[in-house]
Design goal:
By secondary structure, this protein is mostly beta strands. The chain has no helices and 9 strands. The radius of gyration is 21 Å and the shape is elongated.
């Protein structure tokens, strides 16, 4: 399939002029995501930096936090309006201790949480 950078959707008209059937169909192909996604950070385990990617199906306020294993917020990476699409945010754990942490994406009433591991 062709990659159309910067194009949200394409519309094609298909016509069947065969001997057995006649008709026209309109097909719309969309590049927009349809659901919220929070990807596993990469690399994981990490030292001292990693990247966290997420996908938004629509524009909205996004909050991305990191918590220690006891549920205490140790960092807020993002708290702003973002457009629909795929985004990536770097995270540096240089001020944190070795351990397991949780990162959580909140957007439009949806919350997704994943684990990350910092090894020093």
């Amino acid at each position: 399939m062709a990659d159309f950078v910067g194009v949200d959707s394409l519309t094609f008209t298909v016509s069947d002029r065969g001997a057995f059937a006649r008709g026209i169909a309109v097909v719309t192909v969309s590049n927009r995501p349809v659901s919220y996604e929070l990807h596993q950070n990469y690399p994981n385990p990490f030292n001292p930096t990693t990247n966290i990617a997420f996908v938004l199906p629509s524009q909205g306020l996004v909050r991305l936090d990191v918590f220690d294993i006891l549920g205490r917020r140790v960092a807020t990476l993002l708290n702003e309006v973002r457009s629909a699409g795929t985004h990536e945010v770097p995270f540096s754990g240089d001020r944190l201790s070795t351990g397991v942490y949780l990162y959580s994406l909140q957007a439009s009433g949806v919350t997704i949480t994943r684990k990350l591991i910092l090894l020093k």
